[in-house]
Design goal:
This protein is an alpha/beta fold and about 350 residues long. It has two domains: about 180 residues, Quinone Oxidoreductase, Chain A, domain 1 (Alpha-Beta Complex); about 130 residues, NAD(P)-binding Rossmann-like Domain (Rossmann fold, 3-Layer(aba) Sandwich), CATH 3.40.50. About 30% of the residues lie in helices and about 25% in strands. The strands form four sheets. Strands 3, 5, 6, 9, 10, 17 and 18 form a seven-stranded mixed sheet that branches. A six-stranded parallel sheet has the order 13-12-11-14-15-16, with helices on both faces. Helix 1 packs across helix 12. The protein is globular and about 60 Å long. The two termini are about 10 Å apart.
Length: about 350
């Protein structure tokens, strides 16, 4: 089978790899689509110099083989089912996993290909093998929507950890792909209002078209929307934590979803947090229960149009190099790769 390997900055190639066999608890999935996210872009640009590496952790496809132990289990995937794939590895035994916080599993992520190449998802391939419990059936959902199951699981994790409830007043800082998914999920979950803050007028216009209650540049956000119950920071940058706290009403929560540059310092008034009972929550990745929410959004069709609007371009696996070049050279929401 074919598998994409990033061999260095600006270099990606398709290699031949042995098609995986299935163990008793596994499924083999023919990949229909795989999204390129920030990690893939950073690998290709050289910002994350791990080479050679087989990336691709946002994948969906159809089951073509089943292990004997899961073949007849109720609710287990069946041959031909369209599934979204949870490609995170969890050891189940470290302190984080035993506390139910498996997003923070302390065992190093990933594996390796037959030639020793590092595997980080390896969803940019013709086939992927996973444990059946990590393949989530999504019925007749369009593949370009199903492939967003993994980032949606991350958003579900973000909303859950942030304590989001129907009726909350929400601000999303950052109008990129993950910000837009937060917008869609909060609206679907019954938020009283959802504002989007970004420096890009184009992204603010897109957020307005996607149903944002209001949009604003950072300096204008407080005047536009007032104070809110939850502020999701989906794009980390110096000064954003301080701005987010100002946007919080009494008892509000700041959710730091987006990664900040290493070493970023923040100046925060602890008395402000104390007297107004503010919370600052960090979120990272996803956990199994978040996939129930993610696939529920997909199967219900509640945010289908939101997902369709976030597909910037689609490429075949044979044109994977062109896909990487696009995500590294122009602003995009999601670029998808898969199939012939």
């Amino acid at each position: 089978m074919r598998i994409a390997v990033v061999t260095g900055p600006g270099a990606v190639e398709l290699r031949d790899e042995v098609r995986p066999g299935v163990g008793p608890e596994d499924v083999l999935v023919e990949v229909g689509s795989c999204g390129l996210c920030t990690m893939e872009r950073r690998l290709f640009s050289g910002d994350k110099p791990i080479y050679p590496v087989a990336p691709g952790h946002e994948a969906a496809g159809r089951v073509v083989e089943l292990g004997d132990a899961v073949r007849d289990l109720p609710a287990s995937p069946r041959i031909g089912d369209l599934v979204v794939l949870d490609l995170l590895t969890r050891c189940g035994t470290c302190g984080a996993c035993r506390r139910g916080r498996s997003a923070l599993c302390q065992r190093p992520q990933g594996g390796s290909l037959s030639d020793g190449t590092i595997s980080m998802g390896a969803g940019l391939a013709d086939f992927v093998r996973v444990r059946a419990e990590q393949a989530w059936p999504v019925g007749a959902v369009a593949i370009r929507q199903a492939v967003m199951g993994e980032p949606l699981a991350c958003v579900a994790h973000s909303l859950r950890r942030g304590g989001f409830r129907s009726g909350d007043r929400v601000v999303v800082v950052g109008g990129g792909y993950m910000g837009r998914l937060h917008l869609a999920a909060a609206r679907a979950g019954g938020a009283a209002s959802v504002g989007v803050v970004d420096l890009s007028r184009e992204r603010l216009a897109d957020a307005t078209a996607a149903g944002a209650t209001w949009v604003a540049e950072p300096d204008q956000a407080l005047g536009f929307g007032g104070r809110h119950d939850i502020v999701f920071v989906t794009a980390g940058a110096p000064g954003l934590l301080e701005r987010a706290l100002v946007l919080c009403d009494d008892g509000g929560t700041v959710v730091l979803y987006g990664a900040f540059p290493k070493g970023t310092a923040a100046t925060v008034d602890p008395d402000l947090i104390h007297h107004h009972e503010l919370s600052v929550i960090g979120v990272y990745s996803h956990e199994p229960e978040d996939w129930r929410t993610s696939t529920g959004w997909l199967v219900s069709g509640t945010i289908a149009s939101d997902l369709d609007s976030l597909v910037t371009a689609e490429f075949s696996l044979g044109d994977v190099a062109k896909a990487f070049e696009l995500v590294s050279s122009a602003p995009v929401y999601r670029v998808l790769v898969g199939g012939e």
